[in-house]
């Protein structure tokens, strides 16, 4: 019997075999895992050194001939035999390892159950249809889709990572990152970074937790794609789309302390991702993405089947549990990769559009976005038409209409998606070298256009962002739209790119006042662009733009049927 399509795509990267419609362990591998499950009296695995020998033996029974990372053996021995407390080590080898091995014995059963559950779905007419819609598979580039996996299966697959038994042949060709833990342990040594030890401790804590109580919920991994070709209902926006957008900006909160993962309101929590999901999590890396993957280890399993992201893609992961500093919280995490070391290129229109669209891809929910626009149309149809005669018509998301051709004016309507906001921070600004002021505005634009109800921005004490709260409050006070802010950002970026200003965006758009009471449009526009020979002319253009924005607000407020509340 033919192997179903989803299983066929992932099977070369799993340590099991498929025959006669069943998944099972090779006989010799089964014997090795059984011995490990019986405890150290039978397996003799009672130290890190011997554990690594057992790993090599298990790999041999699976026919895995690729060498593991150099110094991986030393790393396993150093962690379990020197760094781990002796009492804890006895519990690890005497209790935890046998339980993990018994979980491994169930992997074929767990996979058969997984594909059995996703094999059939209701056809809407009381019958069943065969589907591969959410099954574990390689979720290829440019393939929108979801993989839904139980936390029990994720835990079992992560045991495979710990024991380094995932096949690695062909992963590079598929743009898949490494998934075994050999490089993680190889980077651990007495003279290495303390952070490497802490990363491994987080994972060991996870395995100890699941060995005592395995979670029973599911986690979804979604590849989100904005099609590059026009003709789909929602496609990759062009600059004109952002220029013309009249969507109001969402609320913007600023936190100078705290962490994204500690945010209390329901929100998308942003992973400052590498194009390869997980980045250096299983190597030496220890920045925002790697830390997140250690405290939510279930994220790691996405590295098994999610190839690297293209420019028009993002990855959303819903339902992973935080095991380190445990809060019991399950989260929605969105991975978006920023430009790496963009330098002055980041102020060019190509890079601005790339970053804004990347964030938009991660932030928006296609189904809810379209439902939202339909609800807006419904409200408009029931309202007094003269109330909206100052705006362009709202166009519906239907047929083959392009997203870049649509203009929305809903400045007096709710534009939220179930009050789910975005918790984010200095995306692409650390090791990647992005401008934090630029990235904060880009993410605000994307979240607002994606109909998110708020942004909570964690500055991590970044000095250039110390006026972020003041500037965003001023912009909201003057009721700017996405298009207004985009056009001002483009104006600033052009000046910055051409060397006509050295100011950061926040000080350029709202210069520090000599007199705190001076907050009129004339003052707002006496920007530091005056540092150049053309500064007067540039300031005049910016000043004109501000006045246009204020005139637009006043015209709207004085429109038929509107009050001034």
From TrEMBL:
Its EC number is 3.2.1.143. InterPro entries: PARG_cat_C, PARG_helical, Poly_GlycHdrlase. GO terms for cellular component: cytoplasm; nucleus. GO terms for biological process: ATP generation from poly-ADP-D-ribose; carbohydrate metabolic process; nucleotide-sugar metabolic process; regulation of DNA repair. Keywords: Hydrolase. One of its GO terms (molecular function) is poly(ADP-ribose) glycohydrolase activity. It holds the Pfam family PARG_cat_N. Belongs to the poly(ADP-ribose) glycohydrolase family. Residues 85-223 form the PARG helical domain. Residues 240-330 form the PARG catalytic Macro domain. The active site is at 271, 289, 290. This is poly(ADP-ribose) glycohydrolase.
